[in-house]
């Protein structure tokens, strides 16, 4: 079973002709409200693929929180670990201009109140999980506590997004650490001494994770369990219309297949197909495929 520990946000989206400057007001389209946040996205993506999935997260006691709980339940996610209250539900205020460029303000809200104590109180979820997947839209000390609470034999998967330098204790637990190009550069910091993603895999491994996956958008991904064994996994050629959530779908699919016993390369190949379907459709959670849709690709 898969446990996702992470964020849940309401994405509030308004289309605009152009962004307002300081002190200015512009009129926009009707408001669209979508369930989002990397944790919530990953849980929905995995459940839709058929993974038995639970989410450990925190939402506010408000309408956005209810929207998030509802979307998790509709996808079949176990929401016993979704805590309610402490702050308003996290929100992403998103304006989209006619060229498709986004400007986003995030209010972490309840995500920032998911504490190490909440992790310790979720022992039964950790014991029921072969794989635990996390991102960085929750406090770093909470991620550290996740690593300390892993059940014996369970596997930790981290997508460090939004990226920041990580403590050695967290890096050492990752199997794998999953990064896109931007995240790889931030995690490597001074150690990013090459422009070649093939080199990043080895450089990242030197920071301590047991394995690494570097996602390269339409170029596929690289997987590595040792610096001398970097494998390129091909992407699937599709007409991309919206890449929102592709990374979340990829990570969820990879975690799901690893939990089912797949090798890292096989899991990444499956995840590439899931990511490819997701980019052919609008939205984040709305774009995630079922197992049958992945097979049909
Ligand atoms: P992120 O969304 O985190 O920046 P990427 O852009 O690397 O991550 O995308 C994650 C995965 O989604 C890729 O490894 C790939 O499998 C798939 N993907 C993303 N964009 C495309 C695309 N244009 N065509 C096919 N697959 C894609």
Automatic annotation (TrEMBL):
InterPro entries reported in the protein's UniProt record: Carboh/pur_kinase_PfkB_CS (IPR002173), PfkB_dom (IPR011611), Ribo/fructo_kinase (IPR002139), Ribokinase (IPR011877), Ribokinase-like (IPR029056)
Binding-site residues for substrate, renumbered to this chain: 9-11, 37-41, 137, 248
Annotated Carbohydrate kinase PfkB domain residues: 1-290
Pfam families the record matches: PfkB
Binding site for ATP: 180, 215-220, 247-248
Catalytic function, reaction form: D-ribose + ATP = D-ribose 5-phosphate + ADP + H(+)
Cellular localization per UniProt: Cytoplasm
Entry's Gene Ontology cellular component terms: cytosol
Keyword Thylakoid carried by entry: no
Record-annotated active site: 248 (proton acceptor)
Residues involved in K(+) binding: 242, 244, 278, 281, 283, 287
Cofactor(s) required for function per UniProt: Mg(2+)
Source superkingdom: Bacteria
Pathway: Carbohydrate metabolism; D-ribose degradation; D-ribose 5-phosphate from beta-D-ribopyranose: step 2/2
Gene Ontology molecular function terms on file: ATP binding; isomerase activity; metal ion binding; ribokinase activity
GO biological process: D-ribose catabolic process
Residues in the signal sequence: none
Keyword 4Fe-4S in annotation: no
Protein EC: 2.7.1.15
Cofactor-binding details, from the entry: Requires a divalent cation, most likely magnesium in vivo, as an electrophilic catalyst to aid phosphoryl group transfer. It is the chelate of the metal and the nucleotide that is the actual substrate.
Alphabetized UniProt keyword annotations: ATP-binding, Carbohydrate metabolism, Cytoplasm, Isomerase, Kinase, Magnesium, Metal-binding, Nucleotide-binding, Potassium, Transferase
Activity control, per UniProt: Activated by a monovalent cation that binds near, but not in, the active site. The most likely occupant of the site in vivo is potassium. Ion binding induces a conformational change that may alter substrate affinity.
Annotated function: Catalyzes the phosphorylation of ribose at O-5 in a reaction requiring ATP and magnesium. The resulting D-ribose-5-phosphate can then be used either for sythesis of nucleotides, histidine, and tryptophan, or as a component of the pentose phosphate pathway.
Subunit text: Homodimer.
Record's protein name: Ribokinase
Organism: Streptomyces griseorubiginosus
């Amino acid at each position: 079973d898969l446990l996702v520990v992470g964020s849940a946000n309401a994405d509030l989206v308004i289309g605009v002709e152009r962004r307002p400057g300081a002190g200015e007001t512009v009129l926009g389209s009707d408001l669209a409200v979508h369930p989002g946040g990397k944790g919530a996205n990953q849980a929905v993506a995995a459940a839709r693929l058929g993974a038995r999935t639970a989410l450990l997260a925190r939402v506010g006691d408000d309408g956005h929180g209810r929207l998030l709980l509802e979307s998790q339940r509709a996808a079949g996610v176990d929401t016993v670990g979704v805590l309610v209250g402490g702050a308003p539900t996290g929100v992403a205020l998103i304006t989209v201009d006619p060229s498709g460029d986004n400007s986003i303000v995030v209010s972490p809200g309840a995500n920032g109140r998911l504490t190490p104590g909440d992790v310790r109180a979720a022992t039964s979820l950790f014991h029921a999980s072969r794989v635990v997947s996390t991102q960085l839209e929750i406090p770093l000390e909470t991620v550290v506590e996740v690593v300390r609470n892993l059940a014996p034999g369970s596997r930790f998967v981290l997508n460090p997004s939004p990226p920041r330098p990580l403590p050695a204790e967290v890096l050492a637990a990752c199997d794998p650490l999953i990064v896109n190009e931007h995240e790889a550069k931030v995690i490597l910091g001074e150690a990013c001494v090459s422009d070649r993603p093939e080199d990043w895999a080895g450089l990242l491994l030197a920071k301590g994770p047991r394995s690494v996956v570097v996602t390269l958008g339409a170029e596929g991904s690289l997987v590595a369990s040792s610096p001398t064994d970097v494998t390129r996994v091909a992407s699937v050629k599709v007409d991309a219309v919206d890449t929102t959530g592709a990374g979340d779908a990829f990570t969820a699919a990879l975690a799901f297949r690893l939990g089912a016993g797949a090798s890292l390369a096989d899991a990444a190949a499956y995840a590439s197909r899931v990511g490819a379907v997701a980019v052919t459709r609008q939205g984040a959670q709305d774009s995630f495929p079922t197992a049958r849709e992945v097979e049909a690709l």
